[in-house]
């Protein structure tokens, strides 16, 4: 048996992120408390380097590491999205983490390792790598949800997320076992070959795999954990996990369904279309009645998972690029909305009630304007990123003949405009509460500026970004 | 073949019984010992599948180390085998049972319908320490490294969660009167 070629150059971005994570953690041990500011710079620097190497690295469609890992155009686009999400999340969370006296070194290390997991999921070409990427993504998120150890809500969130996540992982693993039984291999290539004439085992394995991924992406009916976990986890963690878990899960959806199981599209697209419609309805309707901004954004993230899934349902190259574009737009608008909430505090605690936003736009016009922009974008109105993202996924679904899904998508978007714009409306009316104050910093401001710029650029001048994400379609051909 | 079948039946019954014991008993020590039964009988199943190395690892790592660790934790946390607090779930138990039964039926039907052609016998060196090691360091070298990353995260997680609550010493150089907004430098 000859050893397979090991080309470390193809995994440079992952190596950079892993090394930065370890350096940040070790640095946290040696720097005294209160002087750990350099760790933020270190983490941000590592992320920027990884982003640069990801964009600069060439792409090849043939798998490396004995068929475990592939660096193709899909890998590049989704890894870049994940790294942008990490960078914004680091800027958003730095001040909060220091303010709440959480462990800075460990915090940044865990954030980076979760990103590593999402990157590996995007680059996997084998079910084993997909599983390990999923775990590398999930385990740091469990810990980050419980990171405010003295807060019982955070503890509950961490435990809930861990138990339900482990439950979902069990389904995922059982699915892998059945697929291995049916094909005799865990590689995506073997899956693609077997998908032409699937056995019963094969179908059952795919079904269980879907359940596992649906848990991670928080789509209905596997979404029950999301609102509680999002509400209990510390605010920066909620922001980060709502984005990075989606990037990882949808990377897996694109890899498994659109690339490996393309031959079975007629069958899984019906199932995923049903899940997608359910998710859009439940997420948007449940969000109408929320009073906590964290819960509102949790249901919003569920609803957006449904919207993104319509791109997967389309099953076409256009659908895959629409998913990639949506993930990038979702990253900017969701992290931006969380960033505005992170700028506020209510007597030293998180200002997580929608009522806390009352009238704040007059005290801080820029903040009010930014929040309005993010809400308009989340609702999917022009001229923002959210509009174009929805436009692309629904067009792809229509072109693929999935008219029903697209119609439900547009209808539920109209419903969503009510609760998103209500948040913006709250900011411009009424008397601001005395309890609510600002807790900004240069880093959060930078993140908000970057997120607003992202939302506007993607909405108004999307041509460069669409050209970038359209590379994804090449993988499907 | 007949001997293997008999051994398998005993191992399978023992592992299912152990699984029921893990969730059925209200005494933590009994749960842990039932888990030992599950792991031991699974090791026997691995032996029947010609995976000697995995079977040995199962006994050494899971049965030998992890269950013993569980027992230590239980002894330290619950003095005198203290019982767990009573269950407050009412309808969830039966509902879970019904759903589990439905899932079991579904899987059994799948296995029955999908009864595959007999598979080829495993090659002679299958499952030995050498072949497992060779696979780990050639075809599975990247997953192996990623798994070590996951273990590292597990250690960090244990430290982060298990560390005693924030000590006041960490607030050196910080005025406690401004818990918020003091982060700008």
Automatic annotation (TrEMBL), chain A:
<keyword id="KW-1133">Transmembrane helix</keyword>
<dbReference type="GO" id="GO:0042773">
    <property type="term" value="P:ATP synthesis coupled electron transport"/>
</dbReference>
<keyword id="KW-1278">Translocase</keyword>
<feature type="transmembrane region" description="Helical">
    <location>
        <begin position="243"/>
        <end position="265"/>
    </location>
</feature>
<feature type="transmembrane region" description="Helical">
    <location>
        <begin position="364"/>
        <end position="381"/>
    </location>
</feature>
<feature type="transmembrane region" description="Helical">
    <location>
        <begin position="128"/>
        <end position="149"/>
    </location>
</feature>
<keyword id="KW-0813">Transport</keyword>
<dbReference type="InterPro" id="IPR001750">
    <property type="entry name" value="ND/Mrp_TM"/>
</dbReference>
<dbReference type="GO" id="GO:0005886">
    <property type="term" value="C:plasma membrane"/>
</dbReference>
<keyword id="KW-0520">NAD</keyword>
<comment type="subunit">
    <text>NDH-1 is composed of 14 different subunits. Subunits NuoA, H, J, K, L, M, N constitute the membrane sector of the complex.</text>
</comment>
<comment type="function">
    <text>NDH-1 shuttles electrons from NADH, via FMN and iron-sulfur (Fe-S) centers, to quinones in the respiratory chain. The immediate electron acceptor for the enzyme in this species is believed to be ubiquinone. Couples the redox reaction to proton translocation (for every two electrons transferred, four hydrogen ions are translocated across the cytoplasmic membrane), and thus conserves the redox energy in a proton gradient.</text>
</comment>
<feature type="transmembrane region" description="Helical">
    <location>
        <begin position="271"/>
        <end position="289"/>
    </location>
</feature>
<keyword id="KW-0874">Quinone</keyword>
<comment type="similarity">
    <text>Belongs to the complex I subunit 2 family.</text>
</comment>
<feature type="domain" description="NADH:quinone oxidoreductase/Mrp antiporter transmembrane">
    <location>
        <begin position="124"/>
        <end position="415"/>
    </location>
</feature>
<dbReference type="GO" id="GO:0012505">
    <property type="term" value="C:endomembrane system"/>
</dbReference>
<feature type="transmembrane region" description="Helical">
    <location>
        <begin position="15"/>
        <end position="34"/>
    </location>
</feature>
<protein>
    <recommendedName>
        <fullName>NADH-quinone oxidoreductase subunit N</fullName>
        <ecNumber>7.1.1.-</ecNumber>
    </recommendedName>
</protein>
<feature type="transmembrane region" description="Helical">
    <location>
        <begin position="201"/>
        <end position="222"/>
    </location>
</feature>
<keyword id="KW-1003">Cell membrane</keyword>
<feature type="transmembrane region" description="Helical">
    <location>
        <begin position="161"/>
        <end position="181"/>
    </location>
</feature>
<keyword id="KW-0812">Transmembrane</keyword>
<dbReference type="InterPro" id="IPR010096">
    <property type="entry name" value="NADH-Q_OxRdtase_suN/2"/>
</dbReference>
<dbReference type="GO" id="GO:0008137">
    <property type="term" value="F:NADH dehydrogenase (ubiquinone) activity"/>
</dbReference>
<keyword id="KW-0830">Ubiquinone</keyword>
<dbReference type="Pfam" id="PF00361">
    <property type="entry name" value="Proton_antipo_M"/>
</dbReference>
<feature type="transmembrane region" description="Helical">
    <location>
        <begin position="442"/>
        <end position="461"/>
    </location>
</feature>
<dbReference type="GO" id="GO:0048038">
    <property type="term" value="F:quinone binding"/>
</dbReference>
<feature type="transmembrane region" description="Helical">
    <location>
        <begin position="41"/>
        <end position="61"/>
    </location>
</feature>
<feature type="transmembrane region" description="Helical">
    <location>
        <begin position="401"/>
        <end position="421"/>
    </location>
</feature>
<feature type="transmembrane region" description="Helical">
    <location>
        <begin position="296"/>
        <end position="317"/>
    </location>
</feature>
<keyword id="KW-0472">Membrane</keyword>
<feature type="transmembrane region" description="Helical">
    <location>
        <begin position="323"/>
        <end position="344"/>
    </location>
</feature>
<feature type="transmembrane region" description="Helical">
    <location>
        <begin position="73"/>
        <end position="92"/>
    </location>
</feature>
<dbReference type="GO" id="GO:0050136">
    <property type="term" value="F:NADH dehydrogenase (quinone) (non-electrogenic) activity"/>
</dbReference>
<feature type="transmembrane region" description="Helical">
    <location>
        <begin position="104"/>
        <end position="122"/>
    </location>
</feature>
């Amino acid at each position: 048996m000859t050893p397979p070629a090991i080309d470390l150059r193809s995994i440079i971005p992952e190596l950079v992120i892993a090394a930065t994570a370890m350096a940040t953690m070790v640095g946290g041990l040696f720097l005294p408390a209160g002087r750990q500011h350099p760790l933020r710079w270190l983490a941000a620097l590592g992320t920027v380097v990884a982003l640069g190497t990801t964009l600069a690295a060439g792409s090849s469609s043939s798998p490396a590491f004995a068929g475990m890992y592939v660096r193709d155009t899909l890998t590049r686009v989704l890894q870049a999205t994940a790294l942008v999400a990490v960078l914004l999340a680091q800027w958003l969370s730095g001040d909060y983490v220091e303010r709440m006296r959480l462990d800075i070194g460990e915090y940044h290390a865990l954030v980076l390792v979760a990103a590593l997991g999402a990157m590996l999921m995007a680059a996997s070409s084998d079910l084993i790598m997909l599983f390990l990427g999923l775990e590398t993504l999930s385990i740091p998120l469990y810990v980050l949800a419980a990171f405010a150890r003295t807060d019982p809500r955070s503890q509950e969130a961490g435990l809930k997320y861990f138990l339900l996540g482990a439950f979902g992982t069990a389904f995922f693993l059982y699915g892998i076992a059945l697929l291995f039984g049916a094909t005799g291999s865990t590689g995506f290539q073997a899956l693609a070959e077997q998908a032409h004439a699937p056995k019963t085992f094969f179908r059952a394995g795919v079904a269980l795999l879907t359940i596992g991924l649906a848990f991670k992406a928080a789509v209905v009916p596997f979404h029950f954990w999301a609102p509680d976990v999002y509400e209990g986890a510390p605010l920066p963690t909620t922001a980060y996990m709502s984005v990075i878990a989606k990037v990882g899960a949808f990377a897996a959806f694109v890899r498994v369904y659109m690339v490996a199981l393309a031959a079975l599209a007629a069958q899984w697209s019906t199932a995923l279309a049903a899940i997608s419609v359910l998710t859009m309805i439940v997420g948007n309707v449940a969000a109408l009645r929320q009073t906590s901004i964290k819960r509102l954004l949790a249901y919003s993230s569920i609803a957006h998972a449904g919207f993104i899934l319509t791109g997967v349902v389309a099953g076409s190259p256009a659908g895959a690029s629409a998913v990639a574009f949506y993930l990038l737009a979702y990253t900017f608008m969701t992290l931006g909305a969380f960033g505005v909430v992170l700028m506020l505090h209510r007597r030293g605690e998180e200002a997580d009630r929608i009522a806390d936003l009352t009238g704040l736009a007059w005290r801080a016009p820029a903040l009010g304007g930014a929040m309005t922009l993010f809400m308009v974008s989340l609702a999917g109105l022009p001229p923002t990123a959210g509009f174009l993202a929805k436009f692309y996924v629904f067009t792809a679904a229509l072109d693929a003949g999935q008219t029903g899904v697209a119609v439900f998508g547009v209808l539920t978007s109209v419903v969503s405009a009510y609760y998103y714009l209500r948040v913006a409306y709250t900011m411009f009316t009424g008397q601001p509460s005395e309890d609510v104050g600002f807790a900004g910093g240069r880093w959060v401001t930078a993140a908000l500026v970057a997120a607003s710029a992202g939302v506007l650029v993607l909405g108004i001048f999307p041509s460069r970004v669409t050209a970038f994400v359209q590379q994804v379609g090449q993988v499907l051909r | 073949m007949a001997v293997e079948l008999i051994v398998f039946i005993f191992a399978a019954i023992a592992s299912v019984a152990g699984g029921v014991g893990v969730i059925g008993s209200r005494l933590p020590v009994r749960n842990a010992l039932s888990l030992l039964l599950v792991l031991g009988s699974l090791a026997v199943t691995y032996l029947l599948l010609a995976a000697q190395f995995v079977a040995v690892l199962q006994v050494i790592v899971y049965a030998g180390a992890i269950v013993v660790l569980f027992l230590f934790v239980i002894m330290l946390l619950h003095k005198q085998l203290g019982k767990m607090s009573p269950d407050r779930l009412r309808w969830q138990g039966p509902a879970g049972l019904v759903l589990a039964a439905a899932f079991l039926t579904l899987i059994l039907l799948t296995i029955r319908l999908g009864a595959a052609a007999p598979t080829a016998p495993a090659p002679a060196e299958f499952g030995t320490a050498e072949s497992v090691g060779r696979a780990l360091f050639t075809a599975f070298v990247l997953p192996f490294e990623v798994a070590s990353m996951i273990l590292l995260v597990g250690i960090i997680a244990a430290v982060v969660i298990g560390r005693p609550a924030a000590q006041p010493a960490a607030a050196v150089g910080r005025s406690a009167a401004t818990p918020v907004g003091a982060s700008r430098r």
